[in-house]
Amino acid sequence: MYIPCLLRPEEVLEHWSTIHPLIDSALEHSQGEMTTFQLFQKAIAGQVHVWAVVREGSIHTVVTTRFLTFDNTKSLQVLTCGGKIDDWDAWIEHHHLFEQFGKDNGCNSIQIWGRKAWGRRLKCKNYKPLYYVYSMELIK
After folding, report:
1. 36-44 and 16-27 helices, crossing angle to 10°
2. Which of 4, 104, 89 is nearest to 51 (CA)?
3. What are the helix (H) ranges across 1-140?
4. pLDDT of residue 88
5. Which pairing describes strands 3-7 and 49-55: parallel, antiparallel, or unpaired?
6. Mean pLDDT on 96-125
7. How far apart are CA 69 and CA 14, in angstroms?
8. Nearest of 54, 33, 31 to residue 42 by alpha carbon
9. What is the pLDDT of residues 52-64, one digit of tens each?
């Protein structure tokens, strides 16, 4: 059985050697907006939430989130999801914890900015794509 838990900043520090490779694996698919160390610094400062999914005393997956606050809305944004869980259902069955965490913190939504493939995985939770993010690098 997989058990998800929100880590306190001191627990992030304590388990960093296990956590950082899982975050690295997720950030390999990013555009370099944040490094693992920068994410670590934000987690220690309480600006990023680190969720560990544990099975038999071992961390299998790490999900990181943060709050996005706009003028008219607040969202819980999933930044990374990296780990060893092969069975998606084992992770998604705990989605209600993210929902409740968002509600408890005044969020109107949960957002995942990720690869297009996330759409297939999130259909079971009524996520809908709002838009894709495109970017063009400006050469100096």
Report:
1. 130
2. 4
3. 9-14, 16-27, 36-44, 88-92, 95-104, 118-122
4. 62
5. antiparallel
6. 86
7. 29
8. 33
9. 988 888 898 899 9
In this structure, are residues 2 and 85 in contact, taking their beta carbons and an 8 Å threshold? yes
DSSP 8-state secondary structure symbol assigned to residue 1: -
Mean pLDDT (whole number) for 36-52: 96
| CB-CB contact of 79 with 66 (8 Å) | yes
Cα–Cα dist 95/98, whole Å: 5
Q: How far apart are CA 75 and CA 110, in angstroms?
A: 5
pTM metric for this prediction: 0.86
The whole-number pLDDT of residue 24 equals 94
Rounded to an integer, the average pLDDT of 72-90 is: 81
Q: Return the ∠ at Cα 87 (arms to 7 and 22), rounded to 5°.
A: 40
